Amino acid sequence: MVGRRRIREALTDLLLAGPATLAMLVLIFAPALIVGVLSFTDYLFGAPDFNWVGFENYRKLFTDETGRRAVVNTLIYVAVVMPFSIMLSLAAAVGIQSVGRWNVWLANFLRTAYFLPVAATLVAMATVWQMLLHPNLGLVNQVLALVNLPGQEWLSDRSLVLFTLAVIGIWETVGYNLILFLAGLATIPQSLYDAAEIDGANRGWEKFWTVTWPMLGPTTLFVLVVTATRSFRVFETVATLTNGGPGFASDVLVFAMYREGFVYFKAGYSGAITMVFFFFILTLTLTQLRIVERKVHYQ
Amino acid sequence: MTRRQLVKNTVIVTLLMAGAAVILLPFFWMLSLSLKPAHEIFAPGIDFLPSKLEWENYAKAFNETHLLRYLMNGVIVCGAILFFQILFAVPCAYALAHRSFWARGAIFGLVIAGLLVPYHVTAIPLFLGFAELGLLNTYSALVIPFVASVFGIFLFRQFFASLSTDIIDAARIDGLSESAIVWRIAFPIAWPAASAFAVFSVVAHWNDLFWPLIVVSDPNLATPPRGILYFRDEEAGSDFGPLMAAATMVTAPLILGFLLAQRKFIQGITASGLKG
C-alpha cells in the first residue's frame, strides 16, 4: 500500500511539474547550450555539415569593421540612453510627486502621459517617428525651419542616426523609470525632510541632495541596470527605421544577430554575436538580482 | 500658498507639461495624420489638425490591406501564448510551493536560471528546430517558443508560497485531487498575480517584432508589428494616411487597456523589470 501511494504521489508531481520542466529544458536550456556550441563553428543554415573554427567568429566580431561597429554602436546607444533617461525620469518623478501634494488629478494625468509610450507598440510608433523626422515633410524639420535652423537628415546622416535612435529610446523608457522612481520616492518618510529642515536645509535642492538622493540610492541603482538591460536589446527601432544603416552607422548587436543569422544564414557567426549579447545581459541581470535581494522597493 | 511657492509650482507644472507635450506629440501626430486627407499630409507648412476628418484612411487601411488579418493574428497568437503559459506555469508553480519532492530544488533552480536568458538567445536553435519539423510559417512557430514562461512560474510560485497551507489541507481532506486544487482553489485565488502576468505577457507578445520577423514570411500570418512593416514596405507606398490609421489601430488596444486599467497595467509592465 505504502509503495503504491508513493508511486501515485510521484506521478502527481510529474503531472504537475513535468510539462513545464520539459518545456523549459527543450525551449530554453537546450537551445542556449546549442547556440554556444554553434558559435564555435562555421555552420550555415541549410548546409549539410560544418567545421569547428574555434574562436574565429568571436575574433571576427571584435576585429572586423562591421562586427566592431555593432558592438561599439550598442555601447554608445546604451551610454546615451541611460544617463538621459534616468536624469529626466528622476526630475519628472520629483516634480510629479510635488504636484501630487496639491493636485492629485494633475499628477495622475502627467504620470499617465509619461507612461503612454511604454504601453504603446514600438514598431507602430517608430513609423510615426519616421513621419516626424521625414527630411522634407516631417514636423521636426519644419519647426526648425520656422526658427531658421537647418533641417537634418535624422535617419540617413551617418553621424546623427545613432543619436536619433537614442532619443527615441529615451522617449520610450522615461515613463517606465518614472514609475520606479515614484515608487522609490513614496517610501521616503516625511520625517527625514522635516529633520533636514531643522538642520537648515530649506531650499528644494538642498533637501534633494541631503535626503532624496541618498535615500533613492538603491532605486537608482535598480533603474540604472534595468535601463541598461532594456537599451542593450534595442532592435525594433533599428529594424523599422534604419536596418542598421546607412553603412552600418546604426547597426547594433541584436540587429546584427538577426541580419547575419536570418538574412545571411550564417548561424555560426550569428551564434557568436548572440553569446556576446548574452554575456552583457547576464552580467547586468546578475547585478540586478543582487540589488533585488537587498530589498529594493518597486511597485 | 505663499507667493514664492506659487512661482515654484508654476515653473514645475510648466516644465512637466512641456515634457508631457513632447512625449505625447507622436501619439497626437499619428492621430492627426490618420485623419488628414492625402493632400494635407503633403502640404507645406505646419497644420496640427486636419481641416476635416478623413475617415477614408481607416476605410482604406481595413479594406485594401490585411490590417484586420494582422490584428486577428495578434489576438490568436497572444491568446494562445497566454493560455499555454498559464496551463504550464500554474501547476508547476503550485508543485514548487506546496508539494515536496526530490526534484523541487532543481526545478526552482532552473526557473531562476531561466530568468537570466533573454529570448533572443534561443532564436537560432529554435529556428533550426522549426525548420527541421517543417513548422516555419505556422501559428505553432509563433506560439511554441513562449509556452514555458519561467517568469510566469516564478510569479505564481511567489504568490502560492504566500498562501496559507490551511486552505490546501482542508481541500485535501475534502478529497479533492491535486489538479482540482490547482485549478479550482489555488488559481482563482491567484487572480491578482494572473492578471498582472496576463498584462505582461500580452504586451510583450503583441509588441514583439524579433521572433515573428524570423519565423514568418507569409503576410497572412503576420502579427501586428510585422504587419505594420509589410503595410509600410509593400502596401502603403507613400500613402501615409492609411499607414498612420493602421498604426493607430495596432496601438489602440494596448493604449485603451492601459487607460482603463492603469494600476494593473503598470504592475504588469514594471514586473517585467525582473526578467532578463
Short description:
The complex is a heterodimer of chains A (299) and B (276). Chain A is mostly helical and 299 residues long.
What labels describe this entry?
heterodimer; A: 299 residues; mainly alpha; 75% helix; globular; B: 276 residues; MetI-like fold
Count of spatially separate domains of chain B: 2
CATH architectural group of chain A: Orthogonal Bundle
User: In total, how many beta strands of chain B?
Assistant: 0
Multimer state: heterodimer
Biggest sheet details of chain A: none
CATH class of chain A: Mainly Alpha
**Assigned CATH architecture of the largest domain in chain B:** Orthogonal Bundle
Taken together, the total number of domains of chain A comes to: 1
Helix content estimate of chain B: over 70%
What does this structure look like?
- The complex is a heterodimer of chains A (299) and B (276).
- Chain A is an all-alpha fold.
- Helices cover 75% and strands 0% of the residues of chain A.
- Chain A has one domain (65-293): MetI-like (MetI-like fold), CATH 1.10.3720.
- Chain A contains 13 helices and no strands.
- The longest helix of chain A has 37 residues, at 2-38.
- Chain A is globular, with a radius of gyration of 25 Å.
- Chain B has helices at residues 3-34, 38-41, 56-63, 67-98, 104-115, 123-132, 139-143, 150-161, 165-173, 178-189, 191-207, 210-215, 224-236, 240-260, 262-271.
- Chain B starts with a helix and ends in a 5-residue tail after the last helix.
- Chain B contains 15 helices and no strands.
- In chain B, helix 3 crosses helix 14.
- Chain B folds into two domains: 3-54, no CATH class; 61-274, MetI-like fold, CATH 1.10.3720.
- The chains are: A mainly alpha (299), B mainly alpha (276).
- Chains A and B meet through helix 1, helix 3, helix 4, helix 5 and helix 6 of A and helix 1, helix 4, helix 5, helix 6 and helix 10 of B.
